[in-house]
Amino acid sequence: MRISSKNLDATPKTDLLALFLPDSGKPQLPEGVKLPKDVLAEFEGKFRSVRLVDPSGGSAKRIALIGLGSLKSVDPDKLRRAAALAVQRARGAKLENLAIWVEDRVAKSVGEEVAGQAIAEGARMAAYSLTKFKGKQENGDKDGQTLKTITISGSSAAFRRGVKTGDALGEANCFTRELQDAPGNKMRPRDLVSEARKLARRSQRITASALTEAQMQKLGMGSLLSVSRGSEEPAFLIHLVYKPKTKAKKKIAFVGKGLTFDAGGISIKPSAKMDEMKYDMSGGAAVLGVFHALAALDVPYEVHGFVPTSENLPDGKANKPGDVVTASNGKTIEVLNTDAEGRLILADALSYASKKVKPDVMVDLATLTGSIVVALGHELTGLFSKSDSLAANLLAAGEASAEACWRMPILDVHLKHMKGRIGDLRNINSGQGAGSSGAAAFLNEFVGEGIDWAHLDIAGAAWGAEQRDYQGGPWGTGVGVRLLLEYLRNHAG
């Protein structure tokens, strides 16, 4: 499906023309568009209201009136959702092309470039579907879809620039969701490595490599390697690098948990909904998604992506509760619960990134704790950081991208609770509560001195979120991709 932007002063020739209308004021229509008498007067313009109309003039076969609510209340996410509704109507009717008309007053109310970006994001994300594991499609293209083109109107270069950016961000989100939603036997650690190498082939400014288990063994990554012992699939540590066109302003590292399937190990999970544990690689998928977009976008930073990837399964070689493992920074860890494995693979990844890259800023993303779901549900990401400035910038990026975060604490007592009895640390703070803060405190022990670091717990937001028209429900959300790209583009400075 192709998304483009044009200055459409006249009626476009299209199967469906979507008009975004506020609930008040005289609507601006494309030249030549004529609607049956009283249609506009009867349409109230309530947010998410949709009315299909057969036009009385113009070259559009059908018209969809889509309400935005009051002009004062229009924000980027309402535009994303309106675009998604338009795409849903076009796909539902098995149409091949769609045009979206945006009034100048609507675009200017949020900023023309922001409006173009939001509409393109919503359109692209709403078209996502995972069909490649189904049988032969009877209709449509190879993905079983008929919608081939979306043309988004806009009267300024800024708007059209926003559309181009939004399409890249939307594509990256869909790429991430496809990784998330793939079954565990089709998205193994080796498959994540393959996807990373494909990303490097998309841009001369991106490179990809992956440490093998033998290489990690030489580096002393006993914490990461302990998790993969129960699986026949070998672990890897993926490293992606993006170099800007000019001298980098700073180095930024993103680290994503890549557990392609988590059965819990010896501390096995309940069987109900265990199939959803394919989503335990959502942080790693988000990091790959960022680089998918960086192949099309420019940012003035050297960006590194690290994805420790493994499976966590039970067998005779798997970690046992009470085992002690040694991380690459020399710290020993009591594995009191083998289902708290994400922090074990992140520990070595954070330590390695700190030493290898020495980034100015490091942000990790992980479906780390059920506790964060209890605290924040599925609509918010838990943000942990000792840096007030980094936390503020990530909160702002989350607000702008509609991938909102909520700041959570890392107190001295949380650090104390992670101290071990036999080893230096333990991997759970059993009995003290504050499981998410304890997990963040554990990760803090593996971040190098002088690095601004934040931990994003996306266990709730990665899947199962409320339906938002362009994403939500039981599928992966791709959370983190647009947030981190918004941070890179507008807040990292």
Task: List the keywords.
6-stranded mixed beta sheet; elongated; single chain; 493 residues; 15 helices; 9-stranded mixed beta sheet; alpha/beta
Task: Summarize the structure in words.
- By secondary structure, the protein is of the alpha/beta class.
- The longest helix is centred in the middle third of the chain and has 25 residues, at 157-181.
- Helices cover 34% and strands 20% of the residues.
- Helix 2 (76-92) runs parallel beside helix 4, helix 6 (189-200) runs parallel beside helix 9 (282-294) and helix 9 (282-294) crosses helix 15.
- The strands form 3 sheets. Strands 7, 8, 9, 10, 11, 14, 15, 16 and 18 form a 9-stranded mixed beta sheet that branches. The protein has a 6-stranded mixed beta sheet with strand order 1-6-5-2-4-3, covered by helices on one side.
Mean model confidence by pLDDT:
95
Shape: elongated
- Please give the radius of gyration in angstroms: 24 Å
Secondary structure: helix percent: 25-40%
What's the tally of helices?
15
Q: Give the strand content.
A: 15-25%
Distance between the termini: 34 Å
Query: Number of DSSP strands?
Result: 18
List the SSEs and their pairings.
Elements: E1 2-6, E2 14-21, H1 39-42, E3 50-53, E4 60-67, H2 76-92, E5 97-101, H3 104-110, H4 112-126, E6 149-153, H5 157-181, H6 189-200, E7 206-211, H7 213-218, H8 222-228, E8 236-242, E9 251-256, E10 258-262, H9 282-294, E11 302-312, E12 323-326, E13 332-335, H10 342-356, E14 361-366, H11 370-376, E15 381-385, H12 388-401, E16 405-408, H13 412-417, E17 425-426, H14 435-444, E18 452-457, H15 481-491
Parallel strand pairs: 1-6, 2-4, 2-5, 5-6, 9-11, 9-14, 10-11, 13-17, 14-18, 15-16
Antiparallel strand pairs: 3-4, 7-8, 8-11, 12-13, 15-18
Helix pairs in contact: 2-4, 3-4, 4-5, 5-9, 6-9, 8-10, 9-15, 12-15
